[in-house]
Design goal:
It is a single chain. Helices cover 49% and strands 14% of the residues. By secondary structure, the chain is α/β, with parallel strands linked by helices. A five-stranded parallel sheet has the order 3-4-2-6-7, sandwiched between helices. A two-stranded parallel sheet has the order 1-5. The chain is globular. The two termini are 21 Å apart.
């Protein structure tokens, strides 16, 4: 297992991950945006609808995982980097679409993130990339916690606060 200097910002959809990551980038930290959003943005820019992109959720999650793996293979393990979702997030998403999680668990055990920050859920807001409903969001939050704790990570819960205060909370734990 490779130990890294990487930090994961995770949480259910509409928990504020993207805004926290953007603020960290504003502070000049190295960040990796969410792979699923990159895939969705690339496809919608070519005229695809979210229904077409995520119509086969298992296939979409497989593509997302492949992108995360390729990205992590390019980042130096000693570089302080904040990720909008780590590879173990895919365990939760594979579980939701009833796909075998064991390949994701194996990949997740290759590298060790420095710390995991789980953002407490904000009021759910739908957007162009989300297909989940409130019930699925709650279930995903629980699965995300379980995915990381099953891999023996200590998860730091980030309370609901304004973005700047959430980032300060995170940076005080780094």
């Amino acid at each position: 297992m490779i130990n890294t200097n990487w930090y994961v910002i995770t949480g259910g959809p509409s928990s504020g991950k993207t805004k926290v990551i953007e603020y960290l980038a504003f502070l000049n930290y190295a960040i990796i945006p969410e792979a699923a959003r990159i895939l969705i943005d690339a496809k919608t820019s070519k005229g695809k609808t979210i229904e077409e992109i995520r119509g086969d959720e298992a296939k979409f999650q497989k593509r997302t995982l492949e992108m995360k793996i390729k990205t992590e293979n390019r980042i130096p393990s000693e570089q302080i980097t904040f990720f909008d979702r780590g590879i173990p997030d895919s365990i939760a998403y594979y579980h939701i679409c009833e796909k075998d999680t064991s390949p994701v668990v194996i990949v997740s055990q290759k590298r060790k993130y420095k710390k995991i920050f789980l953002l407490e859920q904000l009021p759910f807001q739908n957007d162009y990339a989300r297909i989940e409903d409130k019930k699925t969001v709650q279930h995903l939050s629980q699965l995300l916690y379980k995915s990381y704790s099953d891999l023996n990570y200590n998860i730091i819960r980030v309370p609901v606060k304004p973005i700047k205060e959430r980032v300060e909370f995170i940076l005080n734990k780094v």
